[in-house]
Amino acid sequence: MFICMTAMIGIGLLIKYILLPGKERWIVYGDNVDLYFLGSDRHEWGTIHLIIGFVLVGLLILHIILHWKMLLALYSKLIKKNSRKVITIVLIIVCMILITFPFLINPNIQELGRNQRHNVSLQKNLQKQKINSGLQKYNLNNDSVKKHHHSKTSIEVRGYMKLSEVASTYNIPCSYLKKNLGIPSSISDDQKLGWLRKKYNFKMSEIELIIDKYKKTD
Asked: Over pLDDT 90: what percentage of the chain?
């Protein structure tokens, strides 16, 4: 239980201060780069954090079962007999609320403020510059740039996605992606894009351009 708790603290600090979310990545690195530790991004480490939490709960339940008699003895000493049932019911209700409340609430939806809209506009401009540089590599004309800009909302790839996942999502052969990205055909289709991007030095926007070009020629 102690190892699980320290692991959860460490991973929480890793997600909070090292594998920064999108807005903070722009501030620190000047670009919306993908951050990885041991081949996993912040979302995957979040999943590991959740799994360790489930393991901790399982160990806690086992701990309660193994020390049930001792807990009953301490409970009877600390709490008076006439109030035990009430306190027990209240504790159970509170615990159930804390566990289930994420599934019972709806998030508040707020419009972006002026500064936030400016940041989003800046991000779009930077992304547009990436697209323009990618066009030179793949010999796409100015008309295709405009079409890609409008279709980009339907094409979105992330570093945690596998090559085969992208191919299946956008109905494009893995071999076509490998050829245009300079990836050897011997590389597994289940390799993640983040790892491939670092090894073969391409950008996520280039993948989106390739997919867009393939759709137009298909």
From this structure: 23
Q: List C-alpha distances in Å: 52 to 45, 64, 95, 141.
A: 10, 18, 19, 50
pLDDT tens digits, 47-70: 999 999 999 999 999 999 999 999
Tell me the residue range of the domain where 75 lies.
Answer: 2-103
**Burial bucket for residue 32 (CB in 10 Å: 0-12, 13-18, 19+):** middle
Domain assignment present for 132: no
Do residues 11 and 84 both lie within one domain? yes
Quote the CA–CA distance of 163 and 189 in Å, as a whole number: 5
Structure tokens at 160: 């945690």
- How big is the chain, counted in residues? 218
The H-assigned helical ranges of 139-200 are 142-151, 163-169, 174-181, 193-200
Count of CB atoms situated within 10 Å of the CB of 1:
13
Write the CB contacts of 33 (distance below 8 Å, at least 6 apart in sequence). 25
